[in-house]
Amino acid sequence: MNKKLGSTLLVAGTMIGAGMLAMPLTSAGIGFTWTVILLLALWLLLTYSALLFVEVFQTTDSEASIGTLAGQYFGKWGKIVTNIVLLVFLYALLAAYIAGGGGIVAQQVANLQGVESAGDGLKIVSAVVFTLIFGGFVAISTKVVDAVNRLLFVAMLVAFALVLVLMLPKLSLGYLLEMPLDYALLVSASPVFFTSFGFHGSIHSLNRYLEGNVAALRGSVVMGSLITLAGYIVWQLATHGVLSQATFTEIITQKPNLQGLVEAIRVVTGSNVVAGAVALFSALALITSFLGVALGLLECLDDLLVKSCNKRLNRLVLSVMTFLPSLLFVLFYPEGFIKALGYAGQMFAFYAVVLPAALAWQVRKKHPNLPYRVKGGYAALLVSAVLGLIIVHVPFLIKWDWLPAVIG
């Protein structure tokens, strides 16, 4: 029971992070009603795909990674493609978290110094310090990550409650009823929104932690995702309810990052207390997501090296391999928060939707009598795979000007 609770909080904590904070940045032109509809649709799709992974994990030992499963059912090239996509996804997501977390730290230091915005040098130092401190927990052990995540998750809930108490009284019904500036933005925003339910890169870590307990893993996925969905809807209610589309879009266009979100809320509410509460919540949300994704990436690298190269590295070396590439991306591209989430969303659509549908298709042919099987049959597998492929191609459609670009 203790591990199941920890796993549920890891699922929710991993999801409630950079994706949640980026949603208001990318949904400023969509409006509250259609943002909620998009959230519900993506929650249904991604919870379904996560449960497909639970189904597939019944056919292997609890130590296996998803790359191992892909090799088992699609051969050598299936494993290679899956591992490449997973690594790109996790590194891009980790880079977004480092960029967002480092940016928040840098801005808070700048505020203490009486400076309006943080300089490049401060941003670099903040990103490095953020990675060293919180990456250190991942380098120690999974149990340490679980313990730290529980404390931070509770603190995040308290900060979230404070944000809601301060913001909800300022709601405007007129703002909530505003319609999309362009309905095509719903499609354009989907890759970034997609990452808001993105814990699938850590699901093999949870399966290993729960020692292959299918019921516990299924319960953690469902409860963790429901907690996340509820939090997202209330968060969208708060942000869309206090910010008009025109004002929000103008401020976010000037600062397409987390500080832009905090600044927009400060300007509209006229309260530094509200803005400070949002900044605190943002930091905690990023940290919990950072821990979950980093843990998944570290264990993915460990599994890949052991099973592909027959090399067992100590956890410190694995930690360097986990954090250094993403940190370098942030150092050379410090404003890449939304960009990194966009790349992550593109890779994630393949990894978290197309791949589990394909794996489940193969598993059901070879193992027709598994104890647990997700409802929906082969038709649901096909529909989810097609939706995943559409989302994969959204960034290309934006680049070719067939869809409008989201802010940032």
From TrEMBL:
GO molecular function: aromatic amino acid transmembrane transporter activity
Main location: membrane
Gene3D superfamilies in the cross-refs: Amino acid/polyamine transporter I
Positions of transmembrane segments: 38-59, 80-104, 124-144, 151-171, 183-203, 215-235, 273-301, 313-334, 340-364, 376-398
Recorded topology in the membrane: Multi-pass membrane protein
Biological process terms in GO annotation: amino acid transmembrane transport
InterPro entries linked to this entry: Amino_acid_transport_2 (IPR018227), Trp/try_permease_CS (IPR013061), Trp_tyr_transpt (IPR013059)
Keywords, comma-separated and alphabetical: Amino-acid transport, Cell inner membrane, Cell membrane, Membrane, Transmembrane, Transmembrane helix, Transport
Cellular location(s): Cell inner membrane
CC per GO annotation: plasma membrane
Coiled-coil spans in chain: none
Pfam families per UniProt: Trp_Tyr_perm
Family according to the record: Belongs to the amino acid/polyamine transporter 2 family. Mtr/TnaB/TyrP permease subfamily.
Record PANTHER family: LOW AFFINITY TRYPTOPHAN PERMEASE-RELATED, TYROSINE-SPECIFIC TRANSPORT SYSTEM
Function, as annotated: Involved in transporting aromatic amino acids across the cytoplasmic membrane.
Protein name: Aromatic amino acid permease
Organism: Alysiella filiformis DSM 16848
Upper taxonomic lineage: Bacteria, Pseudomonadati, Pseudomonadota, Betaproteobacteria, Neisseriales
